[in-house]
Amino acid sequence: MSDKPETPEQPGTPGSEPGTPDKPRREQPRRRQARGERRIAQLLDAAASVFCASGYTAASTNAIAREAGVSPGTLYQFFPNKEAIAIELGGRLMHEMRQTYGAVFGRVDPATPLAETVGAAVDRFVAFNSEHPVFFALMKGPDTPGRIAEEHEALHATMVARIEELLSSYLTGRPAAEVTRTAHVCLGIHKAGLELALAHEGAERDAYVQEVKNVLIRYLEPLTCGHTPTPSP
User: Fold this and answer.
1) Which DSSP string do the residues of 158-219 spell out, in sequence order?
2) Which residue numbers delimit the DNA-binding region (predicted)?
3) Which distant-in-sequence residues (6+ apart) come within 8 Å of 152 by Cβ?
């Protein structure tokens, strides 16, 4: 059965409704816009649940609408298809991820031990992926929309560059090509370990996270020769 036409929840245009002393005209579009933004957030939350449970390929707009508790007609007022939902959701998640690695890969205090730096970075990314499991589901799906894949590749390249900056404080005197290679290996170890850790829960997940830290520390320690990081200029 097709959906009955519904009143759009999109923002209105200025002057579309008569104003009153208590409710000026300009407030009406703002309220409609706020309702629309809440509805979009509701749909994206529902999509995240469906993508995690079914995967992107098997998910459908009907399933997302059902999870959100709205009709498909309401969903189509905001998103034309499943791909558009995934792109919007992926874009927001990658923005949050950029904020996360911006906080992680900041300037290193010269007195910070390598183990502490590695542990803090791993913990931050594990926390992000635990809070947003759909990020991993979207990025690893075989049918991930091309735009998401492209943005993820750009994110990967930026993360490698930031890891290089962080490692340069520890790998003093090492050739730039070696630092770059080490950054790629660190990110590869982390991503593989993260996938393994996220497949478990509770204490078992914590144990796998610690193993990831151990691997990274044991890989990096011989390269650093026990040096503490040099101050950033």
Assistant:
1) HHHHHHHHHHHTTSTT--HHHHHHHHHHHHHHHHHHHHHHHTS-HHHHHHHHHHHHHHHHHH
2) 60-79
3) 90, 94, 139, 144
Mean pLDDT by 10 residues, the chain (233 residues): 45 42 56 86 96 92 97 96 95 87 67 89 90 86 81 88 88 91 96 93 96 97 68 48
Number of domains in the chain: 2
Q: Which of 31, 49, 80 is the last residue of a domain?
A: 80
Q: How many CB atoms lie within 10 A of CB 101?
A: 19
Residue carrying structure tokens 């409710």: 23
Q: Give the Cα separation of 62 and 82 in Å (integer).
A: 10
Structure tokens at 163: 């890891």
